[in-house]
Description:
Chain B: Keywords: ATP-binding, Nucleotide-binding, Transport. The complex is a heterodimer of chains A (536) and B (310). By secondary structure, chain A is mainly alpha-helical. Chain A is built from 21 helices and no strands. With 310 residues, chain B is an alpha/beta fold. Chain B has helices at residues 45-52, 74-79, 96-105, 113-121, 135-148, 165-180, 192-198, 216-221, 266-275, 288-297, 302-309, and strands at 5-16, 19-30, 34-38, 60-65, 68-69, 81-84, 153-157, 184-188, 201-206, 209-215, 225-231, 244-249, 256-261, 278-284. In chain B, helix 4 (113-121) packs antiparallel against helix 5. Chain B is elongated. The site of magnesium ion has 4 residues of chain B, from helix 1.
Amino acid sequence: xxxxxxxxxxxxxxxxxxxxxxxxxxxxxxxxxxxxxxxxxxxxxxxxxxxxxxxxxxxxxxxxxxxxxxxxxxxxxxxxxxxxxxxxxxxxxxxxxxxxxxxxxxxxxxxxxxxxxxxxxxxxxxxxxxxxxxxxxxxxxxxxxxxxxxxxxxxxxxxxxxxxxxxxxxxxxxxxxxxxxxxxxxxxxxxxxxxxxxxxxxxxxxxxxxxxxxxxxxxxxxxxxxxxxxxxxxxxxxxxxxxxxxxxxxxxxxxxxxxxxxxxxxxxxxxxxxxxxxxxxxxxxxxxxxxxxxxxxxxxxxxxxxxxxxxxxxxxxxxxxxxxxxxxxxxxxxxxxxxxxxxxxxxxxxxxxxxxxxxxxxxxxxxxxxxxxxxxxxxxxxxxxxxxxxxxxxxxxxxxxxxxxxxxxxxxxxxxxxxxxxxxxxxxxxxxxxxxxxxxxxxxxxxxxxxxxxxxxxxxxxxxxxxxxxxxxxxxxxxxxxxxxxxxxxxxxxxxxxxxxxxxxxxxxxxxxxxxxxxxxxxxxxxxxxxxxxxx
Amino acid sequence: xxxxxxxxxxxxxxxxxxxxxxxxxxxxxxxxxxxxxxxxxxxxxxxxxxxxxxxxxxxxxxxxxxxxxxxxxxxxxxxxxxxxxxxxxxxxxxxxxxxxxxxxxxxxxxxxxxxxxxxxxxxxxxxxxxxxxxxxxxxxxxxxxxxxxxxxxxxxxxxxxxxxxxxxxxxxxxxxxxxxxxxxxxxxxxxxxxxxxxxxxxxxxxxxxxxxxxxxxxxxxxxxxxxxxxxxxxxxxxxxxxxxxxxxxxxxxxxxxxxxxxxxxxxxxxxxxxxxxxxxxxxxxxxxxxxxxxxxxxxxxxxxxxxxxx
Lengths: 536, 310
Ligand SMILES: Nc1ncnc2c1ncn2[C@@H]1O[C@H](COP(=O)(O)OP(=O)(O)OP(=O)(O)O)[C@@H](O)[C@H]1O
Ligand SMILES: [Mg+2]
């Protein structure tokens, strides 16, 4: 054991030093986001009227799908905060943890650094323990920052215990997914698969909790991601969910450790060693090459988004039934009015959900374009650069695959929505045309994100992380924008703010054309830059 | 004449920000010759090669391959060129066989019987995923693809750094085969015996400058041969001949002298020694190692080099 952990402290310091800027940026961004929203909340929801105005919205199934389902009566601004912010913040924490967990374990191994370190007098387990410690530190720090931020936010109804419950609860949720990431990093032999699988597990939990939240919130206890909804901060202050998260983290960590001990460095439990002796007819140039490299992840994304769509669709009967929230409506307004109101609710739901799904579909699209830099830095492209291929051709290999995975997985999510939605609706089906319009209005937001990434990778690849900021901002603005009453102009800083809420409203073809033109412009500038610069 | 010169580089400079990686690169590779490109780590070999391939753009100077500008006409040039990078990294999920085929197709070529033969010669298992390959095996993949390509100009950047001696041998015989078929080759290497065996001409680069180029014999000429001679009569006056250096007399035998001599003084020296009746003579030509180590080490006295050139 002693030998196993030799060098642990040294590695720990080394890793923290290496990641200090990354950690600092994430911590500042997340704590700032949380505190910023908390400080704003008293202004938005300081009066009973302002809370009442959003109450019905929040209790609608569409909002439950996004934000979770809560029993807490909404009386003060802190009540709105302690319920509606949890799922969103959990998502952000999870994204951060998967990023760090995979990066500091499998990512380092991919680069061969672990091997270098292992060759020195450092115990076999030291690297694993150092990674664990780093994750605990990151989550603990953020948890504390959140707690303090909430406590001093000035929201009415805030208590110390409730603040720490939210802060540490989010920290524990982060840690839980950090452990998921570490486990996946042991199972798979490359960081890309480990990341995808971690997100896949997150996706399943997200969809499962959405389903139970709408159908029967008690069953959300079965979904670890849903535990965060059960803390009842500022009221019951239930620490059991936090305890559960920590316990499950320990279990996952133990499993990861077990695999870590039994495998060789650089390998995974799931490894394919052999393949074809000759290239297939299809594998013949940059476009088919990138297609081949990303085929598995492309299929996973398309299937995952289709499933997400069908899950959203399968709750249409619950959502599109206004009588559940407003039983007297039929007596007052008559059947036709009720049906038209139901229809409006569904259209609204589709308009909200499609934007979220577009943001999700942009993820694999950005990954694909940004791989141009990743593959270059890993040295994979060095030989390709000396082939009789124009740079435009190489560039378009990544770009086309990005556009396809982005657009097709978005279309798949709408298809899922269409099929499942109409399957559960007894009357008042949404026509295929509704979805086609939604597609036309929303898909250009994906291509703009791709365009931003193409521009950056072409001109200044070192800055390609800005494409993630662009998408992250769009996701934030479309997920929380309404809840935290972001000003109109600020949501319009991102393509996702220009969809004109189709299908609730009709397609704004001017917006669509402008977005497509912007996309084209960004891509052209990116390709122009790529042809002129040094490839290093 | 321009048809005979495959690669021509004139006064190429490359700056990375403020750092001048290449200061003055001037050399050419003739058709049908193997040009050895040597120099210490960080001298700028890879940077020069990446400039030739149009991967990076020279800050100033002129570089042409087949008479075409390496930056502007890179796609046409690459059509007739094969390249093996120094560090070969391959997509972990593809097999060696797939990558070889892909590389060939990217240049409009096909997997041929020659490819199969090379796979056998280099003893590569093409069914294995690249992630399982060692450094040497990854290099083999790039080499097999390059050798089975029907190019006119081959560029190898330290191609044997990961190969075992047996494979190095295969590499050398393949290069000599290319040469016999009139192909031109630029070979950057740290393995001097390899350079010595294969290269017609050599360029030495240090700190971004080509400090010497020419045939091996020309270069040998620039260094001194070591002599140990025993004569019947006293031959100590040999030290008065121009071109004799580091002269000393053996401590135990005053008839035995040690000295080094410039190449152009050897004739005079031999005449002189013959008169003194040579009993035994031992001459050691400069090893390439000596030659290059001499160059590598010189730091600021570049003037000495240009003296040699005169
Ligand atoms: N993209 C770059 N940016 C900044 N500096 C660079 C870049 N590429 C190379 N250099 C620097 O240029 C110098 C020459 O590097 P180069 O790789 O050409 O050397 P080399 O002769 O190939 O060395 P080796 O024998 O180790 O392969 C080095 O000091 C290196 O650090
Ligand atoms: Mg080099």
